[in-house]
Design goal:
heterodimer; A: about 80 residues; mainly beta; 5-stranded antiparallel β-sheet; 3-stranded antiparallel β-sheet; globular; B: about 270 residues; alpha/beta; Elongation Factor Tu (Ef-tu), domain 3; Rossmann fold; 2 domains; 5-stranded parallel β-sheet; 7 helices; 11 strands; about 25% helix; binds flavin-adenine dinucleotide; binds zinc ion
Chain lengths: ~80, ~270
């Protein structure tokens, strides 16, 4: 499947978070890699969005949306560092 | 997020250059102000966006189309313009079997309305706030590398750089099929002529202009090495285009000694 960068998460995540989460730094619980969410690999399909670690390919997060709710899974992220202005 | 929520939860603008303060995103109704052919396969669409808060160079927006039966399709498009104001320019390449791009390229007319979400993304952006550092000789040079429509956000950066009379050294390496396929051709030429701090390098993959020194060919590692700011000068690099193009270029850059942390990418999809 074709993929894009975590940059493309900016729109979907802005529906749920009040700041741009793509510059937040996440740690992969699989390989320990740390990097901005913008640097992850994003796979999108009709079923939803899968975010994978660009180092080890582990699933970091999933996003499934319907008209009245969204499910955000963060199973592969052990920590998120958010810059404060 | 609702507009009501944005007023109270907005974080204070980031003071440091690293934490670029970008305007808050939201859904907006855009009216198409004008459309024109950008290349034989692409259109430039100028939008008047009610309530648009301005945007940084390199950001994108999401366009949502809704069919009469309620079916929606959302796609991301880089913004070719930057700064304050409610006029926003995008440029769209037509994928023949695409769901959204043929509509945007061939059907959309001035006066049509579109739903847009933006401005989006604070990572793939450049701002002329490093002007002081440039004057002090501390700014790192910037290398832009585009394939096809991937030039859109990089054009926005080059334009912002020119408009700010920024002294940071900029170089744009732009891979296109033929001379007809150059996006923002006149604007880029004028920017490069107007500023000694911007160098433009074109690579033609299918057909070169008459008298061009090299036959048309895809970018190779050797071409990349010859046309980008050397790793030793520690450039900040922005790469944008189809996913395959971006990945080939980014891998070569790392092989050529560029620090992966200094390379920012925007994959458009495709192969
Ligand atoms: C952050 C971001 C910014 C973008 N900015 C721009 C922009 O400024 N200008 C622009 O023209 N596009 C841009 N794109 C791509 C754009 O979002 C759409 O993917 C593109 O217009 C195709 O949409 P579609 O509905 O026509 O095709 P779809 O119906 O989604 O796909 C049709 C076919 O084309 C393939 N495909 C999908 N995307 C591409 C691609 N990029 N290249 C080649 N094949 C592809 C699909 O796999 C499928 O087989 C951007 C993408 C991202 C993630
Ligand atoms: Zn990992």
């Amino acid at each position: 499947m074709q993929h894009v960068d975590g940059n493309a998460l900016a729109g979907p995540l802005a529906e749920f978070f009040s700041f741009d989460l793509t510059t937040a730094i996440a740690r992969c619980s699989g390989c320990g890699a740390v990097g901005e969410l913008a640097r992850t690999m994003v796979y999108r399909s009709g079923a939803g969005t899968v975010v994978r670690c660009s180092e080890c390919d582990q699933v970091l997060a999933t996003l499934v949306e319907t008209a009245d709710r969204a499910w955000i899974g963060l199973s592969g992220i052990s920590a998120i560092e958010v810059p404060r202005g | 997020m609702s507009d009501a929520a944005t007023g109270t939860t907005a974080p204070a603008p980031a003071p440091s250059a690293a934490l670029l303060a970008v305007p808050r995103s939201g859904w907006h109704v855009a009216t198409v102000a004008s459309t024109r052919r950008e290349t034989p396969n692409a259109s430039r669409i100028e939008l008047e966006v009610d309530g648009w808060p301005g945007n940084a160079a390199g950001q994108h927006l999401d366009v949502r189309l809704t069919a009469p039966d309620g079916y929606t399709a959302t796609r991301s498009y880089s913004i070719a313009s930057s700064g304050a104001g409610t006029r926003v320019t995008i440029a769209v390449d037509k994928l023949p079997d695409g769901e959204v791009s043929p509509y945007l390229v061939d059907e959309v007319r001035a006066g049509d309305m579109l739903e847009v979400h933006g401005p989006l993304g604070a990572f793939f952006v450049w701002a002329p706030d490093a002007a002081d550092a440039a004057a002090a000789g501390e700014a790192r040079p910037v290398q832009l590398i585009a394939g096809g429509s991937g030039v859109v956000p990089l054009y926005a950066m080059a334009e912002a750089h020119g408009a700010a009379h920024d002294l940071t050294s900029f170089r744009l390496l732009y891979s296109v099929r033929s001379p007809d396929d150059v996006y923002f051709a006149d604007e880029l030429r004028r920017l490069a002529e107007a500023s000694a701090a911007l160098q433009l390098d074109l690579v033609y993959t299918r057909r070169s202009p008459a008298g061009w020194p090299t036959p048309p060919a895809r970018i190779t590692r050797e071409v990349l090495e010859a046309a980008v700011i050397p790793a030793a000068e520690r450039p900040r690099v922005f790469v944008c285009g189809s996913t395959g193009f971006v990945e080939r270029v980014a891998d070569w850059l790392v092989e050529l000694g560029h620090d992966a942390r200094s390379i920012r990418t925007e994959r458009y999809g495709g192969t």
